[in-house]
Specification:
By secondary structure, the chain is mainly alpha-helical. It is built from 14 helices and 7 strands. The protein has helices at 2-24, 31-74, 113-119, 124-149, 151-155, 172-177, 182-197, 200-210, 213-216, 219-244, 251-278, 286-319, 322-344, 346-349; strands spanning 86-90, 93-97, 107-108, 111-112, 122-123, 353-359, 372-379. Helix 4 runs antiparallel to helix 13, helix 8 (200-210) runs antiparallel to helix 10 (219-244) and helix 11 (251-278) packs antiparallel against helix 12 (286-319). One of its GO terms (cellular component) is Golgi membrane.
Length: 389
């Protein structure tokens, strides 16, 4: 009897629940129908997720099979680049190349598959033009617009500290950050300029670490290289701050940003000259030695111009010497060209370098975040052709 009572209890509770629902609703829900609908919904959800998972697994298997067949058909096993770094010889100098499983020149439609693959790589000219040459041309364009179309501003230009002194050479900061419409054009230049500029440190870091391993592995060399990488990032950040902080509204922040930019640029030139000489990069070709000599000239004269800006602006701020302000502005105009030219020299130092995204065949089927590698800078001599399979 006790067992029968226990079996009847759930049925009585169910009837009480249904009875209570009658007082709230006209038609009580059928328990069997209600729970069966919920089960159907959960079953459909489970089936959908299982189908989605199966589709992803089949897609990964199909991709793996296709690439494996293509690899076996187009090239032998010896033509597939190993995961370890290999070296290319060019004019007696070895360039180490970080390479992951990549197909080498296999024939496809009467054209090397390798060439088709690397035709889509990012050219060094794009990085040089947009990352180095564009800001210099853009800045000089803003200055020229001021002198051509806003000459009345030039003739009437004064500063708050010395309102009675008329300066016919307004500083660069007014043309790129205060006056319209030049400042909007300069903002567009900065927007286009910054992404290519981020690649610059990795080009030189790879070159400095590759040529002479006995030098690059020394502690002092790595320390200088560490500071070099930081100055390469601080310099464009200082330029962004110069653009953002208005000279008239937040002068102190603007002056601090200019100091950060000019100091980072000078240390960047110094570290580049030291590392390029110590690593043997200047000895690669005659052109590399010429670019190093030009960089050394820019370093010596650039330091002198940078120091003169601080002295001349101090003379103007304390004693309102108009000639000192003209000297300060003229040095600024020259330093703009120095900065653009110094970074543009990478076009001649890395004329045969391509930037590409490498895909690792061995990592297919693993997590998506691990499939794609970072940007790999590879040196391919232009005068050599890749061997066919």
């Amino acid at each position: 009897m006790a067992k029968i009572a226990k079996l009847k209890a759930p049925q009585e509770e169910l009837e009480r629940g249904i009875g209570a629902s009658r007082t709230l609703n006209d038609e009580p829900p059928n328990p069997e129908t209600y729970y069966s609908k919920e089960g159907a919904r959960s079953s459909r959800r489970r089936a959908f997720f299982h189908a989605l998972l199966a589709a992803r697994q089949w897609r990964a298997r199909a991709r793996t099979t296709f690439l494996a067949i293509m690899n076996m058909y187009l090239c032998d096993e010896t033509d597939v680049m190993p995961a370890d770094s290999i070296a290319d010889e060019m004019e007696g100098v070895k360039y180490e190349r970080q390479s992951f499983a990549t197909l080498k020149s296999a024939t496809f439609d009467d054209k090397p598959f390798y060439d088709k693959l690397y035709d889509k790589a990012l050219s060094i000219r794009i990085l040089a033009y947009f990352g180095a040459l564009l800001p210099g041309i853009g800045c000089y364009t803003c200055i020229a617009y001021t002198y051509i179309f806003q000459i009345e501003r030039v003739h009437n230009f004064t500063t708050f500290s010395c309102p009675d002194v008329y300066i016919f050479f307004p500083p660069v900061s007014y043309s790129i950050g205060v006056w319209d419409p030049q400042k909007y054009f300069w903002l567009f230049v900065m927007f286009v300029h910054m992404p290519p500029r981020l690649f610059y440190p990795y080009f030189y870091k790879k070159m400095f670490n590759t040529i002479k391993h006995e030098v690059s592995e020394q502690r002092w060399f790595q320390g200088v290289l560490w500071w070099y990488m930081r100055t390469m990032y601080i310099e464009p950040l200082g330029l962004i701050a110069i653009t953002v902080f208005d000279m008239e509204k937040v002068f102190m922040l603007h002056a601090l940003s200019y100091t950060v930019w000019i100091v980072a640029f000078n240390f960047n030139m110094l570290f580049t000259v030291i590392l390029q000489d110590a690593s043997g990069a200047r000895e690669l070709t005659k052109l590399h030695n010429q670019t190093w000599l030009l960089k050394r000239f820019l370093l010596i004269t650039g330091i002198a111009l940078s120091v003169s800006t601080g002295i001349s602006y101090g003379l103007y701020a304390f004693w309102c010497v108009g000639e000192a302000y003209v000297t300060f502005t003229s040095a600024e105009y020259i330093l703009v060209g120095y900065n653009s030219l110094f970074h543009f020299l990478m076009l001649f130092e890395f004329s045969n370098v391509k930037v590409e995204m490498r895909y690792d065949l061995e990592m297919i089927g693993q997590e998506k975040s691990q499939k794609f590698k970072n940007v790999d800078i590879t040196v391919y001599p232009e005068e050599k052709q890749q061997p066919a399979c």
